[in-house]
Amino acid sequence: MAAAKTRTSSFSRNISAAAPSQGPGLKCGPNGTVFLSSGISDLDKILGGGFPLGSLVMVMEDAEAPHHMLLLRNFMSQGLVHNQPLLYASPAIDPRGFLGTLPSPAASKDEKSHKHDPDQEKGLRIAWQYKKYFGESQLNFDGQRDGKHEYSNEFDLRKPLERHFLSAQRVDCVSIQDSPNLSALQDRSATFLSQYPRNDGSISCAGRIAIQSFSAPQCAYSNMEWDMLSFIRSLKSMVRSSNAVALITFPPSLLSPSFCKRWQHMADTLLSVKAIPDEDKELSQLLTGYQDMVGFLNVHKVARINTQVPVILDATTFSIKLQKRRFLVLECLNQAPVDGSSGTSYGTSGSCSGSSKTGNLDF
Amino acid sequence: MNQRSSNLLDEALGLDQSIEPWPLRGRIVAIEDQVETSGSFVLHHILKRSLSPNSSNVSIFIAFSQPFSHYDRVLRKLGCNLVTQRDNNRFFFFDMLMLQCPGGDEGISPECGLIALYGKIYKTIVALPEVSSKNVTIIIDDLSLMEVAANGSSDYVLDFMHYCRTLTTEFDCSLIALNHEDIYSSADRPTFLLQMEYLADILIKAEPLATGLASDVHGQLTVLNKGMNYRQGSSRNKISNFHFKVKENVVECFYPGSQG
Question: Polar residues composition bias: which ranges (chain A) (predicted)?
Answer without folding.
Answer: 1-15
